[in-house]
Amino acid sequence: MTAAAERTAVEQGAEDILAVARAQVLERGEGLTEQQVLAVLRLSDDRLTELLQLAHEVRMRWCGPEVEVEGIVSVKTGGCPEDCHFCSQSGRFPTPVRAAWLDIPGLVEAAKQTAATGATEFCIVAAVRGPDKRLLSQVKAGIEAIRAAGLDINIACSLGMLTQQQVDELVAMGVHRYNHNLETARSHFPQVVTTHSWEERWDTLRMVREAGMEVCCGGIIGMGESIEQRAEFAVQLAELGPHEVPMNFLIPQPGTPYEDYPVVAGSEALKTVAAFRLAMPRTMLRFAGGRELTLGDLGAEQGMLGGINAIIVGNYLTNLGRPAEQDLRMLDDLRMPIKALNETL
Amino acid sequence: MNEGFCGWCGKPGAEGDHATCRQRLSSIDPPRYCTSCARRMVVQITPSGWTARCSRHGTFRPGVSGPAAGAPPDPAKAGPAGDPTLSLA
Ligand code: SF4
Ligand SMILES: [Zn+2]
Ligand SMILES: [Zn+2]
């Protein structure tokens, strides 16, 4: 059967999706289509083990065994003018998060804590619509101080939507990767955010890519999107072709519109991880926020054996993660080497 | 509990059910409210720690049994436990 015929067969439900994925993704390295991703997401739980196994094989074949480890820190917390309904840092919702700025010594200390874990990435994050002059100069001074402290670690930033000039400034500062999440499927985005559009986010990502920075773009599962919209999101990300996709699972934050949303079930989360891997065989897929709540310790291991090949260790921006040592031990137990600096996955 | 307020929801510790609060504080959340006065605290999380500062009662850190800044706690008063996670146990 030709590749096109295979895809049609699955779309019509005539052939087993995992058999097709084995030939299409594992053997040929071609990501699944939207309908195929949907077929994966619709698999019953009794096929989960088989699905995770295939996703793991795909990851090993097209990415290799290394795991990229990253630490993150918030330099400007809370008080954001945007209304992303999942976010405890939005100034529009009555959340308990108060605005805070991290000073330069604090930023250097956070970079040291990250480097001490063996991580190769340190991401500086701010809760803003986009950076202003003050924030950019703080980031610039922070990066200089991290370098002056002799820390050998790649620096990424996540500072919201950018102008071309700001993109150029970040490149000049030596920022090698920029995170800007599309968050959810384009069709669901207006339910999640009303103060800016999915397309505005896409524009920033395009400028980042054209300027030569690595693109990091993912989202959050469990924000009321349908299963069809999860499949839509996977292929929209595949179309963007980011270097890295961070996968978060909703942590219902008190005071936000989503405070009473249910936590994503573990099997659903794992299925989504595997489906995203099958949609993006060569992309770095990172476990980010919410895995502790959704998956617990056992699920984290299953995810590492089900398509994930990067993790954020330690704490997040407004939530705590499990201790970095626990994740490093897990990688050791799974015999997954930590990616070294200057190695490209 | 020996403190006045819940570090997660900020409500009086003696009123209502704080099971979810305890669960979140022991897993993924730093305290957001001072357990002595229920003021919202300024919280800074770093990759391997956090600080939570109450303008009245000083700075809390994980695992410290007293405010890390300011005067030492007076055991006669219901001062913050320093680790509000434990204070809710
Ligand atoms: S732009 Fe970022 S910080 Fe601001 S509300 Fe949205 S997710 Fe939160
Ligand atoms: Zn409570
Ligand atoms: Zn107080």
Automatic annotation (TrEMBL), chain A:
Pathway: Cofactor biosynthesis; biotin biosynthesis; biotin from 7,8-diaminononanoate: step 2/2. Residues 65-291 form the Radical SAM core domain. Its EC number is 2.8.1.6. Binds 1 [4Fe-4S] cluster. The cluster is coordinated with 3 cysteines and an exchangeable S-adenosyl-L-methionine. PROSITE patterns: RADICAL_SAM. Keywords: 2Fe-2S, 4Fe-4S, Biotin biosynthesis, Iron, Iron-sulfur, Metal-binding, S-adenosyl-L-methionine, Transferase. Catalyzes the conversion of dethiobiotin (DTB) to biotin by the insertion of a sulfur atom into dethiobiotin via a radical-based mechanism. Belongs to the radical SAM superfamily. Biotin synthase family. This is Biotin synthase.
From TrEMBL, chain B:
It comes from the Bacteria. Pfam families: BsaP. Keywords: Biotin biosynthesis, Iron, Metal-binding. Its cofactor is iron-sulfur cluster. InterPro entries: BsaP_C. Residues 61-89 are annotated as: Disordered. Residues 76-89 have a biased composition (Low complexity). Residues 41-61 form the Biotin synthase auxiliary protein C-terminal domain. The keyword Nucleotidyltransferase does not apply. The keyword Membrane does not apply. Required for the activity of the biotin synthase BioB. Belongs to the BsaP family. This is Biotin synthase auxiliary protein.
